[in-house]
Design goal:
heterotetramer; A mainly alpha (about 290); B alpha/beta (about 450); C mainly alpha (about 325); D alpha/beta (about 240); B: about 450 residues; alpha/beta; Rossmann fold; 2 domains; five-stranded parallel β-sheet; four-stranded parallel β-sheet; about 15% strand; globular; D: about 240 residues; six-stranded mixed β-sheet; four-stranded antiparallel β-sheet; 10 strands
Chain lengths: ~290, ~450, ~325, ~240
């Protein structure tokens, strides 16, 4: 059976919405890796933790999950700072392998903390104003996804503005470029690291609240995002926000198209095949500079 | 700088010593525990004088951590409750002089590795007389290898078909096998379409890709084909799915009258919500396989989205028998929610074990806990609502094991969510309930 | 190789194997402890194989269970479908895994993929095999039918398999020691420390990395059957991403390139994990993994050299003692 | 044979994006010479070495070593032919002991690890590395010791031509003298031809037989140290703007 143009269009649209959310998730990870060189394998697990927080708050206040970002983002910013001070700072100069081991350890702790606190049942938010579809003839748009895509894009562009147009952004980019030179220029590298890591974790708080408008929380949801986010970063290259958005959209669309047209099982593997191919032929990523 | 370094050295040295000490203590404790708990193999050596049995040891191995913990935790909760009821309300195993059941819980983890270790540990430290477990098929297989070798009867709560086809001698299963679920869902839907004179043109089978989902879906398909209804499309999706958007698009395209669906757990909630939001009108959504849609957790999480969905159930929490009502009430009191299928299977499996023990005390007073004697009794019992509590807890009300350890009367109940409550609608609807078909 | 080197390479492996042989007797053939020992020895062998690519060559490989799964499933299917003895199947499994490693490694190293990107592409390899095997094998569990005997390397009790795994372990230990004392080992370590500087002193970086990768993969392909037969079933779940990460963690906690460190890390982590699972798993689900994660963080912060900083000093002391005793 | 050409570079150019790092550079190095290669920052000194040793592939031009065309060959093959180098920014082997690091170099010419270890010991003694620290890990030694290890690692590959890239950067005056002495002995006693890239004029003037001056990627002039020091072009381009 040949798929109709409407179905293909719908599926691309779904992919685009998903892609924008991916770009928000990847942004924090990419910042932390690009600036600090820290390979954070627990990034997805912070989203998981955030989802539970959103679930508690949204159900308690009987309100939409997206509003909960007002609470989760500051809270996760502080959690990020605390984790940076206690765990990340002591391993900054050490081998990447040790850093990975530590972040994997954080992941284990978060997952099992959630398991002990909330047990393994998935949790979804009851009240959401956004869980409806707008039927527009050929396609229908899931409002929750539209809003989350829009907010994701807004925040990603906001962070882009922060990085390119403000003094702090300049300092962050200088630190990413060369730590030693940056510190010679009078930039307090320690403070920049603290800021970047907190920001990276803070963004997961936002991603979690957008996720909960249509998704649900369970202790292992983090692993669905972890590796995929890295694939997005690799495809985007560490060049900039535009590359990140482009690769997020590509991954989102590829996933959505293969899921609709081929098979949902295949759709899990395809981004990784593309990833390995791209690494072979363009090690700097699709959109990275040489 | 120097003091900081030496401080760090001191800390790391201390940590090293502590780790070392822990290991040594663990080793010594392990050996001591092993020596003190090693039980002489009384069960296999026939004795001439009638032994006084004070307790019957029941092992339960369930996944309590990892992805499957949601089922395992529920099963263990159910076992704890039932052991309580048996010991306190039924007075233990009366034919064994009121011997009490004692429960030993082990975490099977997520892999056959840890499941096998759990089984070996349980066997070598406590040597239970009967073991229950382990919900997931490959974990159960790892456990069964051990229980076979040690000749300990294993009453499984895993549903996948092949587990009773490997020629194991001490493996029993009361719960209906996975493919039965698929068959039941089809029978129910076809019966309803005839009764209510609903025409169906398009049927879609939608299932998650785990071994369970695939087995149930195979059951659905073969029953459909047997009834000369050819499914228009089968959609398989990963059980870890996080976004149903693309699948909803495809369903919109196919515009089915009936969706026969095998959800895993969380995906069921996701799907129901996505379908509701999409506004697609599907005449009926019939689930199969017991997880998702109609269990209290799903109803709580999905809310109105699952209204009028049905699902086949290995357990029927609404069955109006005296004991079933009593146990469901006790479960609700203790844990604050209705029991799901994972709990229900343990209810009747453990109750069946208890009734077998009663019988063993009468038939084999000199050696009631001998595994071969237990097997003889397991296979000889023919239970129904009037003569057994276990049967009262079972969806079809009848339990009789075949030679391969499988229940001949294995069957499911179908529950429908009506006004936010799971109600039994098929094969016999509970009092005052009629199935709503098609969905309004 | 001169005779003194032969002694330093073979002797430790033999000692470990001999001490290992006594364990079933010490625990009175308690199957729980024998199985725990078996699983620890298999994990130690896998981690020590990883040590070649991860510890010596410094490539953070996260694909160990891609190779374990591929080699193991091949050997198992040959046995169940065609009655081929795993003694042969394990070598074929090793060959297939090595071929896969070559196919993946050649372009990766050719295009200079390293660091986190190498790690991610190996992690991606596991995901791809995981999904591909769902397509080819379906979601089913494949149970190894019960056929006892050395021909099938399948037994009711665990001792025989354990003895066999000890032989494999001894081989992997001596291979590690041989590598660390030979030209290859020096070259791999130089590559780990600085690829550019290594090339400048005449090291063919690509060739040696590929050599390390293929060696590692073929050992894992060989161990595959052993792993599966100790599990009794295989399925697409055998291609496990988390397990592959676990192997790398053992290698890191043990200390990169340290044979004694990785060996003890594999044993200690497995035993601690099982101890916690056994005592806390039934009481407070998840607590044992939480503690396990905390342990990783603590090791990372306090002992970045891993356990090797403890064990290396110990083995050195023993070696000096033995040498003194000889002369 | 004493003035046989070891290295001949002809018309070498290398561009990075819009920046021309090397522009049509030609030069010769003859046997047993010490050639100082100087020039201000960004003159293309290190790029030249990188092109010769195969780290970069030149955009145009040829490199001949002992008459053989080695242009664009991979670094490890060029090292095998007998060109070695040290690094401006040290590239230490932190997690290998000093002796192991140098042995890795010595293994280029032998398979026998024990023999390579002996050779490594000799080389380390030759450059005056303290014997008590042979077994120390790279992470635990000082900067000058790193420089000595770097030098020893390169010498251990038994090169015919050795480039020394800004070896004294960051060292104290008396340490500079120690290195100068070692470099001279490498040339005299081991007979290795040397190309010394340097920023510190006092050091390079004192040890070189001949000086090559690069400026903005081009070869400015060459001659004996005395000639170069007097050359007005050099004074203007280099010494004049940046007195040392």
């Amino acid at each position: 059976m040949l798929p109709s143009p409407g179905l293909i269009f719908q599926s691309v649209l779904d992919g685009v919405f998903l892609g924008f959310l991916y770009s928000l998730i990847a942004l924090g990870l990419s910042l932390v890796f690009g600036v600090m060189g820290i390979i954070n394998f627990a990034h997805g697990d912070f989203i998981m933790l955030g989802s539970y927080l959103v679930w508690i708050l949204a159900n308690g206040l009987r309100s939409d999950p997206s509003f909960m970002s007002l609470a989760t983002v500051p809270l996760f910013f502080v959690i990020g700072a605390a984790i940076y001070m206690t765990i990340i700072r002591p391993v900054l100069g050490k081998e990447p392998l040790i850093q990975i081991a530590v972040t994997v350890g954080i992941g284990y702790v978060l997952q099992n903390f959630a398991l002990m606190m909330f047990r393994a049942e998935p949790r979804a938010v009851q009240t959401t104003y956004l869980n409806l579809y707008l039927n527009l003839g050929v396609v229908s748009i899931h409002l929750a996804k539209l809003i989350s895509a829009f907010l994701s894009l807004l925040i990603v562009l906001g962070v882009h503005y922060l990085l390119t147009k403000t003094w702090v952004g300049l300092a962050i980019r200088a630190t990413a470029y060369d730590r030693e030179v940056a510190s010679l220029m009078g930039i307090n590298v320690g403070k920049i690291f603290l800021l970047v890591f907190s920001l990276g974790i803070g963004l997961t708080g936002l991603a979690a609240s957008l996720w909960m408008t249509f998704g649900q929380a369970d202790p292992y949801i983090g692993s669905s995002f972890g590796l995929l986010t890295w694939v997005i970063i690799a495809l985007g290259g560490l060049g900039g926000v535009s590359g990140l958005i482009a690769s997020s959209l590509i991954v989102g669309i590829i996933q959505s198209l293969t899921m609709t047209l081929v098979s949902p099982t295949v759709s899990l593997a395809i981004p990784y095949v593309v990833f390995i191919m791209v690494l072979w032929f363009r090690p700097q990523g699709l959109f990275g500079k040489v | 700088m120097h003091t900081k370094n030496s401080l760090r050295e001191a800390i790391s040295k201390t940590v090293g010593i502590v780790i070392g000490l822990v290991i040594v203590i663990a080793a010594v404790a392990g050996v001591l525990i092993y020596m003190t708990t090693q039980v002489p193999l009384t069960t296999t050596t026939p004795t001439t004088t009638k032994p006084t049995i004070e307790k019957v040891k029941i092992g339960i191995i369930e996944p309590l951590t990892g992805r499957y913990a949601v089922f395992g935790q529920e099963a263990v909760d159910a076992a704890r409750l039932l052991v309580d009821i048996i010991n306190n309300e039924l007075g233990g195993v009366n034919s064994l002089g009121g011997a009490r059941l004692e429960l030993y819980v082990e975490d099977a983890g997520t892999s056959p590795d840890s499941a096998a270790l759990a089984a070996e540990r349980l066997v070598s430290t406590y040597r239970p007389h009967i073991i229950l477990g382990a919900y997931i098929s490959r974990l159960t297989a790892a456990v069964a290898e051990v229980t076979e070798r040690e000749k300990i009867p294993l009453v499984m709560d895993a549903l996948v078909d092949w587990l009773t086809e490997k020629g194991w001698n001490y493996v029993f299963r009361l719960a209906p096998r996975a493919s039965t679920h698929g068959k039941a869902a089809v029978d129910f839907v076809l019966e309803m379409t005839q009764k209510k004179n609903v025409s169906i043109r398009t049927v879609v089978v939608l299932h998650e890709d785990s071994i369970f989902g695939t087995t149930v879906a195979n059951g659905i398909r073969s029953q459909l084909i047997a009834k000369r209804v050819i499914p228009n499309e089968t959609i398989t999706y990963p059980h870890t799915i996080t976004d149903f958007g693309p699948i909803i698009s495809r369903i919109r395209e196919l515009n089915p009258d009936i969706i026969l669906s095998v959800p895993y757990f969380s995906d069921g909630i996701l799907f129901a919500k996505a379908l509701q939001a999409s506004g697609i009108k599907v005449k009926f959504i019939a689930g199969a396989g017991g997880c998702g849609y109609t269990d209290p957790d799903s109803i709580r999480e999905a809310g109105e989205a699952v209204e009028y969905f049905t699902n086949t159930y290995s357990y029927n929490p609404a069955r109006q028998t005296e004991w079933n009502k009593r146990i469901v009430r006790a479960f609700q009191q203790k844990y604050g929610k209705l029991p799901t299928e994972a709990a229900g299977i343990i209810f009747y499996s453990l109750m069946f074990v208890y009734e077998s023990l009663e019988k063993a005390g009468q038939m084999f007073p000199e050696d009631p806990l001998n595994p071969d004697n237990l097997k003889t009794i397991f296979l000889s019992l023919d239970l129904n609502d009037s003569n057994s509590i276990a049967a009262q807890l079972y969806p079809t009300g009848r339990i009789k094991l075949a030679a391969n350890g499988e229940n001949l009367y294995g069957g499911t109940a179908i529950l429908q969510v009506i006004e936010g409550q799971p109600k039994v609608v098929w094969p016999e609807a509970e009092e005052g309930v009629t199935p709503v078909f098609p969905r309004p | 190789m001169n005779p003194r080197n032969v002694i330093t390479v073979i002797l430790p492996a033999l000692t470990v194997a001999l001490i290992g042989t006594t364990i079933p007797f010490l625990v009175g053939f308690n199957q729980y402890y024998v199985l725990l020992a078996l699983q620890s020895v298999i994990m130690a062998s896998i981690a020590l194989a990883w040590n070649i690519i991860g510890g010596y060559a410094g490539q953070l490989d996260l694909a160990s269970f891609a190779y374990v799964g591929l080699g193991g499933i091949l050997a198992t299917m040959l046995m169940t479908e065609y009655n081929v003895t795993p003694w042969l199947g394990m070598f074929l499994g090793a060959g297939v895994s090595a071929a896969l490693a070559f196919t993946i490694g050649f372009p990766l190293f050719r295009f200079g993929i390293k660091g986190v990107w190498y790690a991610l592409s190996t992690a991606a390899l596991v995901v791809i095999l995981h999904e591909a095997s769902i397509m080819f094998l379906g979601p089913f569990d494949y149970y190894i039918p019960f056929v006892e005997g050395w021909y099938y390397l399948r037994f009711r009790t665990w001792e025989n398999l354990y003895y066999f795994s000890l032989v494999v372990l001894a081989f992997v230990i001596s291979l590690n020691l041989y590598i660390s004392r030979s030209k290859i080992g020096y070259y791999l370590k130089a590559i780990r420390e600085d690829e550019v500087a290594a090339e400048a002193v005449g090291i063919d970086v690509r060739k040696y990395k590929l050599l390390a990768l293929v060696t590692y993969a073929s050992i894992l392909g060989f161990i595959g059957y052993l792993y599966i037969v100790s599990q009794r079933t295989f399925s697409y779940n055998t291609f496990s991403g988390p397990q592959s990460v676990y192997v790398a963690i053992v290698g890191i906690v043990g200390g990169l390139g340290s044979v004694s460190g990785v060996f003890s890390a594999a044993l200690i982590l497995k035993i601690v994990e099982e101890y916690l699972r056994g005592f806390l798993g039934g009481v407070l689900p998840g607590l044992h993994l939480l503690l396990f994660g905390s342990l990783l963080i603590i090791v990372g912060i306090l002992r970045p050299g891993g356990l090797s900083s403890l064990t290396d000093a110990l083995t050195k002391k023993i070696r000096v003692r033995i040498q003194r005793w000889y002369s | 044979m004493s003035n046989a050409v070891v290295l001949e570079v002809s018309g070498l150019s290398k561009r990075f994006g819009g920046i021309v790092a090397l522009n049509n550079v030609s030069l010769k190095i003859t046997k047993r010479e010490i050639v100082g290669i100087i020039g201000p920052n960004g003159a293309g000194k290190t790029t030249l070495v990188n092109c010769v040793t195969g780290i970069y592939r030149p955009d145009s031009g040829k490199v001949f070593f002992l008459g053989e065309d080695i242009t664009g060959k991979p670094p490890h093959l060029i090292a095998l032919k007998g060109v070695a180098r040290t690094w401006q920014k040290i590239r230490p082997f932190y997690n290998m002991s000093v002796i192991e690091a140098v042995t890795a170099g010595a293994l280029l010419r032998t398979k026998d690890v024990l023999k390579a270890r002996e050779e490594a010991t000799e080389v380390l003694e030759f450059v005056g590395f303290p014997k008590s620290k042979f077994e120390m890990l790279g992470r635990n030694i000082t900067l000058i010791e790193h420089k000595l290890v770097d030098l020893a690692r390169a010498i251990a590959t038994k090169p015919k031509l050795l480039f020394i890239d800004e070896v004294v950067a960051g060292l104290r005056p008396h340490e500079v003298d120690v290195i100068a002495d070692v470099v001279r002995r490498v040339n005299r006693e081991m007979g290795i031809t040397l190309g010394v890239i340097e920023h510190v004029m006092r050091f390079v003037m004192s040890i070189s037989d001949r000086i090559v001056v690069l400026h903005e990627g081009r070869l400015l002039t060459q001659g004996t140290p005395a000639e170069v020091a007097r050359d007005p072009l050099v004074v203007e381009a280099y010494l004049g703007t940046k007195p040392v």
